[in-house]
Amino acid sequence: MAACGFAAAQPATGPKCGVAQQLHPPATPGFTGPPDNVAILSHVHQTDDFECSLRARCAYGDPTHKEPGMKKLEFKGFFWHEQCFRCMACNAPIGVGAFIPRGQEVFCPNCYEETFSPRCRKCSRVITSFGVTYKNDPWHRECFTCTTCHKMLAEERFTSKNGQPFCASCFGQHFARRCAACGGAITGLTGTKYCVYEERSWHRECFVCSACKSPLIACGFVAHGAHILCPSCAKDRPTC
């Protein structure tokens, strides 16, 4: 039996298109190189007003400890006994080698990277060069891929489902509703509008009379079995 209806286009619902932001590597201001980033090694003199920056954690137990021949390191107004100028993570002596300061603590480059650099959500490894962020999670660019086809998404249109990223093609193939006319995906990723009647959906441009192909958006129509007809064409069809 034929049934009459009226259709209006509506925006396709579902996950919105995502945008991954570029992630910059962490700043490493303490690498030696420029003169003002070099720790200066010198002797501690008995007349020096010296106090080790580690204070209670000083290796000698007394941050003001001095003895003949002792050496100190200075960096931007902070002082350490030579024996105290060590990586706070691995305890390796730094001397006049490369280091990264964090407050009054110093770290060797490897430990700083392991301790403070962001880690990729997918592989859990440290991100040392430019990566991307999505929903506040950091990723290596090469790790931010479609869950299904593994295409890199750093500069592509994508969406997500259950927290997993998908390219537009895979999302449409696996999750989107299907147009009753062309069978194509209705994703909403490009602002697509669609029509729905009972259990069926159509792209806006596919919602046309099955006989004369005239558009049916905002028009009356007649559902005749699997066919959608304009009122004029429906007159030529049997009603049962």
Automatic annotation (TrEMBL):
SUPFAM superfamilies tied to this protein: Glucocorticoid receptor-like (DNA-binding domain)
Q: Which UniProt keywords apply?
A: LIM domain, Metal-binding, Repeat, Zinc, Zinc-finger
Q: Which domain of life is it from?
A: Eukaryota
Q: What is a single cellular component term in the Gene Ontology annotation?
A: nucleus
Give the Gene Ontology MF terms in alphabetical order. transcription coregulator activity; zinc ion binding
**Does the keyword Metal-binding belong to this entry?**
yes
CDD domains, from UniProt?
A: LIM2_FHL
Q: What is this protein called?
A: Uncharacterized protein
Among PROSITE patterns, the record links this protein to:
LIM_DOMAIN_1, LIM_DOMAIN_2
Its source organism is Cyprideis torosa
Q: Which Pfam families match?
A: LIM
